[in-house]
Structure formats: structure tokens, C-alpha cells
């Protein structure tokens, strides 16, 4: 039986991995909407290849290119933030939410409000909206299938178990490409060094987040919303090989872990086929060749981001949205060569100290907090020395 799918963020790393799996099972899927921010030609080529119903660019300035690239086809072309939401509102069996950053929040919420299944990669949306998103999921009877490898691992380890029997959930962190660097070296890390992840190939923003370990901080908050075991039961451990993707410890002392290659097609496949399983082209684990798996504690002196995220999670309310927005601004500035690597966490910390809005209770509240936190973070950047 054919199922329908829309991919928000189709031209990105998660989008490409998803489409790779769809391509291998072409007759099982009908592609409805594919979206991108701007890469109009690339998006048009994908829309043609997958015979999509509609292709949408978030940046309206790219619509003309998209129209041109789609001319002669039956595929609808649209552009701008409201067009993204219109595309996300079209009925499908599965929406893959793979836009990066809070930019994906409104389209993801639109898909949630339609009910149905959402394979969620866009962690920033859940971190920012938190309870507003989980309440909408409950209200509209939507299902969130976690794409993030750690959360997908936890989700798998919880199948057949009861959440009230869980004693602890441990997120594994690779530690990123700069894991062994000294504080002095970290201050001089370049964008190229920060995005050179040893295990995973990902978009630039999440790669920098992995290097600062803010990625694990965001994932801590993400786990808090996806798996209601309480913040005290959530742990983080460094596991440089990225083979154990996370673990769930039950009250009887049993710990279940999910292991797999560091290839996003594995967790994405588990969402595409859920609750069944499907083939992937990923090389299976060869544990004998790996020889050993190692684990180490977090070093929050060199990598303060996980502490900031944990504190924001405990503070609750608007804090995670402020943390996320400041981080997005700081990461963009670092990638643009405007700021030292170690300033990223500093900008986040100072934005959190200076801006403490009321807890958001609606999507518009969340977006208001996000916008204000961004402008405060940008102001901070301007007053900060580069080094
Ligand atoms: P990416 O940068 O490779 O792709 C992002 C996609 O979003 C692209 O299609 C881009 O065109 C689109 N986009 C960017 N800004 C947009 C905007 N303002 N409006 C509309 N569309 C916009 O990112 P990625 O690595 O694929 O990550 C996507 C999401 O998945 C992120 O939230 C990331 O944290 C999460 N994630 C990624 C991986 C991974 O392996 N890449 C793993 C786990 C979670
Ligand atoms: Mg992850």
C-alpha cells in the first residue's frame, strides 16, 4: 500500500537521508510536499525526481528561480513562510520535520495540528516550544516519532516497557570533533575544525552544536519533553564511538541500549517503517572490528553548554526558547567568522541572564520570545570583542 509523505527541509542532510530511503522504495511512497529555504534548483530537481505535488522555498526571494526550474512540470511552486505552513497542512501519512532551527517551528506545529505522524528531526522547534508543542500533540492526537538518533534509540528501548518503570535515561554524546582539545585550543577553533565531526555527516549548525556540546544540551531538553521521566532521571555520558545511541535503565536494574552504525538512515528508517522495520543500505555493526566501546564523564568546564541547557530545562518557562535562540545567533556568527568558538556559550549564558520573559503559553508567545532573544543576542555580539 502506498503511503504519502512530506519532507520539510528536503535539501538538508536529514532530508537527503530520508529521500535516499524513499528512492530505494519508490513505489511505496507518494511524495506530497518538499521544502527548502532557498536552494531552488536543487529543490526543483528533487520535486521532479519524486514527482512531488508541491515544492516550497521558505525564502520568497527564491520563488522566481523555483518557478523557472519547475516550468513545464505539473508541480506547484510556492514561497514564503505561510506557503511552508500551507504545504505542511496538506494531509499526509507522515511529515518529516527536518528544517534546521526555530524556523521550522510554525510549519512543524501546522503538521501537528493536522494530527497524524510527524518524524521529528527539528529539535530546536521542540526545545523552544516545549509544553506548547507537547500540548498540541496531545490535543490533536498527533504522534511524534523521534528522528534524532539518541531519542530514536530511547524510543526503541521503551517499546514494550512502561515509562513509570524507568529509573534513568542516559543520552550518549560523541563529544564532537574538539572533545580532547584544551580550553586554549578551543578558543582558537575555526569553523572548518568545528564542523569536521568524526562520526556523523550533518548540516553546519548541528555540527557546531556537536562541537560545543550544545547539541547534547538541546537533546537533554528534547528528551525531557519526549519522555516524561523527570529531569533528575536524565543523564548524559560521553561515548566517542557513537555506537550506543542511548540507554534506558529500568527499576529492576536492567539497562536496554540501542546500537547501530552512525548513519541517520537507521533512525529515519525506523520512523518511516514504524512500527514495522525496513531494509537500509547501512553497513551493519562489526563489534569485533571495533574492539571496544568507551565511556567518559562530561567536562562542563571546557564545554559549558550542557550545563546551560540543563539549567534552562530546570528553570523551564521561556528559558529553553531563549537558550535556543541565542545559540542560533551565536552559531551563525561563529560560522561567519565573526566570533570565537568559546564565545558561543558565553553569548547564550549572558542572553539567558539578561532576558527572563514570562513562560509562553501559545505558539505566538514562543515566537515572540524567540525573536526578542535573537535581537538581545545580536546586541550582545556587537558589544563583545571578537576574540
Ligand atoms: P541542514 O542544514 O543540512 O538542512 C536544513 C534544511 O532546512 C534544508 O533543507 C534547508 O533548506 C532548510 N532550511 C534552513 N533554514 C530554513 C528556513 N529559515 N526556512 C525554511 N527552511 C529552512 O540541517 P540538518 O543537518 O539536516 O538538520 C535538520 C534538523 O535535524 C536540525 O534541527 C538538526 O538538529 C536535526 N538533526 C540532524 C541530524 C543530522 O544528522 N544531520 C541528526 C539529528 C538531528
Ligand atoms: Mg542526536
TrEMBL record:
Residues 259-375 form the DXP reductoisomerase C-terminal domain. It catalyses: 2-C-methyl-D-erythritol 4-phosphate + NADP(+) = 1-deoxy-D-xylulose 5-phosphate + NADPH + H(+). Pathway: Isoprenoid biosynthesis; isopentenyl diphosphate biosynthesis via DXP pathway; isopentenyl diphosphate from 1-deoxy-D-xylulose 5-phosphate: step 1/6. Its EC number is 1.1.1.267. 1-deoxy-D-xylulose 5-phosphate binds at residues 123, 149-150, 174, 197, 210, 215-216, 219. GO terms for biological process: isopentenyl diphosphate biosynthetic process, methylerythritol 4-phosphate pathway involved in terpenoid biosynthetic process. The keyword Oxidoreductase applies. Pfam families: DXP_redisom_C, DXP_reductoisom, DXPR_C. Keywords: Isomerase, Isoprene biosynthesis, Magnesium, Manganese, Metal-binding, NADP, Oxidoreductase. Residues 5-130 form the 1-deoxy-D-xylulose 5-phosphate reductoisomerase N-terminal domain. The keyword Lipid metabolism does not apply. It is an enzyme of class 1 (oxidoreductase). Residues 144-227 form the 1-deoxy-D-xylulose 5-phosphate reductoisomerase C-terminal domain. One of its GO terms (molecular function) is isomerase activity. NCBIfam families: Dxr (TIGR00243), PRK12464.1 (NF009114). Catalyzes the NADPH-dependent rearrangement and reduction of 1-deoxy-D-xylulose-5-phosphate (DXP) to 2-C-methyl-D-erythritol 4-phosphate (MEP). Belongs to the DXR family. This is 1-deoxy-D-xylulose 5-phosphate reductoisomerase. It comes from Pelagerythrobacter rhizovicinus. The gene is dxr.
